[in-house]
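Q: What would this chain look like folded?
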Amino acid sequence: MENQTSILINELKKLLSGGGAHVGLKEALADLSIEQVSQKPHQLPYSIWQLAEHIRIAQWDMLEFSKDGNHQSPKWPDEYWPKEVAPETEEAWNKTIASIEKDLLEFIELIESEDLYQEIPHGQGQTLLREALQIADHNAYHIAEIIVIRRLIGAWKS
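A: My prediction, written as structure tokens:
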């Protein structure tokens, strides 16, 4: 069973990092200007900035829930989505990307060191495995939206 769990953890790490069936977040956000991440083309509801911030907030929430019984999740949906279409500065944009990467690495460390199948004590049946799959699924969904916006604004490779 231990070998099977190691295989599963390795597959989860690949899934969380992207690059299998779809590009990862790092590639999806690479080489974008502040102007590009601030656009909402063709009456789409979100900019790339808003999608990246949403990914950051949701992933952070799932990480904190997984490790801290005292964690209070943001209010849904208002506190999961930034109201601003654009980051205030390039530094804010870079901080968002760095936070997503840092939290993902911390979550990967968690799945490497804890029992994937044990119910989270303060949850309602959730496990680390479920949280890992939810992070991967959620991020992949919004990464696809980022790619669509990049295509619409002419900022994606052909």
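The chain has six helices and no strands.
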